[in-house]
Design brief:
Blueprint (H helix, E strand, L loop, with lengths): L2 H22 L7 H9 L5 H35 L11 H15 L3 H20 L6 H22 L4 H9 L7 H20 L1 H7 L3 H6 L4 H23 L5 H13 L3 H25 L5 H19 L2
Amino acid sequence: MTSCVKKKFFLLTLLILISLFRITFGEWKIPLSEVIYFLFHADGSPQSIIIRSVRLPRLLCSVGTGGLLSVAGVVLQALLANPLAEPYTLGIASGAAFGASLAIMSEIFVAPLSFAGALLALLMTGLISRGGNEKIILAGVISNSILSAGVTFIKSIAGDKIGAVVLWLMGSISGAGVRDFYSVFAGAVLILTPAILFAPALDAMALGRERAAVLGVNERLTRMILLITTSTGVALAVSSFGIIGFVGLVVPHISRALTGAGHRNLIFHSFLMGACVLSIADGAAQYLGELPVGVLTALTGGPFFCWILSKRH
């Protein structure tokens, strides 16, 4: 068994253990034996309803969201050749937040406007940076500022819906249901599938544009497909749970240090690690009185962001 396989097996085992603990944990503690039984048998009992309708959807949503945000970070860092790139720093999450806030205030479907906002942010960042990878983070900061101002304006006119908008913006997985799981599952598939298919192209692009061209990589097409699918997947997650920042920044760096730069292994490893990280963070948020999990990820990811930035200069 190779080292990479061992690491993936370890992360998968860790994720299973975390998942079982999360399902047993709550205001009403349920023994592990009953958890395993009711995962496979629905008899309408209170324990069965709590496990299958409340705790399991929340767990799966935290697993899927953590995984897809981490893979999104891997893809964006590779495409833009920038270790600071992730959905939050590039403004994609803020764009989705702007669209979703507008949808909440207008009482219309959240997901389409969230997706439109993510694409708007991506377009703004691209226009401001004019395709230059070295300016992309600064462009993302500018896009974030503009879109955050838009969100602030929406909050000022939201009236009695301001509570829902503010709670959503802080990022929370509490209250996740089956419909949210479907959205996250679709987002994870949308990000994972092209990321795995284009993993060799990402390896080539990491060597530089000239070498990628020699190796037959259509960089423009690859970039367009992955940016659109990544933005869409992130928007699907953000539309359900709000902004959960820095997972897509921290996890890829840790995974890269453990597995190397090969993107096929890195993608799988990052997905599993991101799933573990957000599952633990959501469990901690629940234990602390249902704090928004986005607050915890920002508190831990912010210093990590500063550390990466300081290493580059």
